[in-house]
Design a protein that fits this description.
binds glucose-6-phosphate; alpha/beta
Length: 556
């Protein structure tokens, strides 16, 4: 493949950038009253307005040419067809099969996986209905009131963002908790809120070997046994979600209470699999299936809509435009919805673990920027914290603003206030405030000339800061499913264009191995010298200075 930055489409964009980089969006809007209609796309109740971007028709056509040059459509079709596009792990990437509602087969190595997918969904339905109806009881006949999901990374963030966002759909009297951190505090503080007889632990781990999850799972088991003292009771209170049924069995969870998934589902793409068991328990299987429906709709849109109307493709291309031509280092996610508070955390993993790569598919170091730093917070809170930097800082930060048209909690003027704040921010970021406007404003406020001169430069806003606005009717399971799938496909398209494998995570694996080695050295008596000086120093410092304390605890 030609070097990306030397390619025709890239060079055309580079040249075009020179002609547009100083054009202000304020003028683009003034020149084109149709901008909103021209630069928007929709699916069901989701509308993407991307008119507040530093693009014109020519920019978009160059960007679509870049997507075509990168064979985005072919890669997309190969992914859906079950080709092993995760080349470094020799795996296919088929989270779309988990939400395939078409009734058509999906094949992995020639075998239709849909019967297995459906069987697990049926198992999840059966089990979640038993628990929710009270048919499934704890060891002493108590109803299950608390679900504790023990998992980390992909086995935590997906179910967590959904359960938090879908609270209005949860069953009364049922609570969902998420324990992920190796810091015992996470488990200990959660266990303070639950009773063993009414708690169901869902141990979610694709591999069933992840250190943090196993540590938390064994500590939760010990807590349970210390209080209940009955080995037989475990089967009523611990279930597993994993591809590794053998290891789950070793932990003491029998096959009937194990919910399977498969290696063609990446961790960060796994919430649609049995990793969504906590979602099904908390919201009910109908809502979980509505989530799948929403994702399926987005899959169909991604597969069938022309690139020019394709929401994930448009979002991906705009991201590349800023990342690679404006050198934007980050991308912000601003959900104007308290329920979506965890969305930035979830997207951080989805995007940064997928596209945080330096080596391309051919094994060469890239000479262009790949995945951005993803960050953000729910609005309006962020406005009172870091928005200042967006408005007047020195760094370009393109951002997505997401907002429901209607609130799940209509209360007085709250939603109108929320909505107007969302629009006010994107408007201000786009328009800015000119010197003359700032002077007028201060004059009207009655300031004298001298004061105005003193502070006026601080009251000028450059504007021209790009944002996407994603508006949808209400935050329902179906809409949420579509939004999450939209971002999955956005990340995929960017990975294809950057020619990287978005589906491996060797950095995560490396960290897991190193932690194991250091843990051993921490337990050995005496100093160590087998690491770098800093790591040796820190290990030895802890051992020397806190030796007595560690000895006293017995455990650590
Ligand atoms: C996700 C990553 C990673 C993974 C966790 C948990 O794509 O692979 O975040 O999900 O490390 O792994 P297990 O599910 O195997 O415990």
């Amino acid at each position: 493949m030609t070097d990306l930055i030397e390619s025709k489409a890239w060079q055309a964009l580079k040249e075009h950038y020179e002609s547009i980089k100083d054009v202000h969006m304020r003028d683009m809007f003034a020149d084109d009253p149709q901008r909103f209609e021209e630069f928007s796309a929709s699916l069901n109740d989701i509308l993407l307005d991307y008119s507040k971007n530093r693009v014109n028709k020519e920019t978009m056509s160059h960007l679509f040419a870049l997507a075509r040059q990168g064979h985005v459509e072919e890669w997309r079709d190969n992914m859906f067809a079950g080709e092993a596009i995760n080349s470094t792990e020799d795996r296919c990437v088929l989270h779309s099969a988990l939400r395939n509602r078409s009734g058509k087969p999906v094949r992995v190595n020639g075998r239709n996986v849909m019967p297995k997918v459906k069987a697990v969904l049926a198992h999840m339905r059966d089990f979640s209905e038993q628990v929710r109806s009270g048919e499934w009881r704890g060891y002493n006949g108590a109803r299950i009131k608390s679900i504790v999901n023990i998992g980390i990374g992909g086995s935590d963030l997906g179910p967590h963002v959904v359960c938090e966002a879908m609270k209005p759909f949860a069953q009364r009297g049922l609570k969902a908790y998420f324990v992920s951190n190796a810091d015992a505090t996470h488990l200990v503080e959660t266990l303070k809120q639950v009773e063993p007889e009414s708690t169901l632990f869902v141990i979610a781990s694709k591999t069933f070997t992840t250190q943090e999850t196993m540590l938390n799972a064994y500590s939760a088991r010990k807590w349970f046994m210390d209080l209940v003292g009955n080995e037989k009771a475990i089967e009523k209170h611990f279930v597993a979600v994993t591809t590794n049924i053998e290891l789950a069995e070793k932990f003491g969870i029998n096959e009937a209470n194990t919910f399977e998934f498969w290696d063609w589902v990446g961790g960060r793409y796994s919430l649609w699999s049995s990793v969504g068991l906590t979602i099904a328990l908390y919201l009910g299987m109908d809502h979980f299936e509505a989530l799948l429906e929403g994702a399926y709709d987005m899959d169909q849109h991604f597969k069938k809509a022309p690139l020019e109307k394709n929401i994930p493709v448009i979002l991906a291309l705009l991201g590349i435009w800023y990342n690679n031509f404006f050198d934007a280092q980050s991308h912000a996610i601003m959900p104007y919805s308290q329920y979506l508070e965890r969305l930035p955390d979830y997207l951080q993993q989805l995007d940064m673990e997928s596209n945080g790569k330096t080596i391309d598919r051919n094994g060469h170091r890239v000479n262009y920027l790949t995945g951005p730093i993803i960050w953000g917070q729910s609005g309006t809170n962020g406005q009172h914290a870091f928005f200042q930097l967006l408005h007047q800082g020195t760094k370009p930060v393109p951002a997505d603003f997401l907002i429901p048209a209607l609130s799940q909690n209509p209360l007085g003027l709250h939603h109108r206030v929320l909505f107007s704040n969302c629009l006010a921010q994107t408007k201000a970021l786009m328009l800015g405030k000119k010197y003359a406007e700032a002077v007028d404003e201060m004059t009207h406020q009655g300031f004298d000339k001298e004061t105005i001169e003193e502070v006026i430069q601080h009251k000028v806003f450059d504007g021209n800061k790009p944002t996407n606005t994603i508006i949808f009717e209400r935050l329902t399971p179906k809409t949420l499913g579509s939004i999450l799938a939209m971002y999955e496909h956005k990340v995929f398209v960017q990975g294809v264009i950057w020619n990287i494998n978005s589906f491996d995570q060797w950095g995560v694996e490396y960290g897991k191995v190193l932690a194991g080695q250091i843990q051993k050295d921490l337990s050995k008596p005496g100093d160590v010298d087998n690491h770098d000086a800093s790591t040796n120093g820190l290990i030895n410092y802890r051992k020397r200075v806190y030796f007595d304390e560690i000895e006293k605890c017995g455990v650590d």
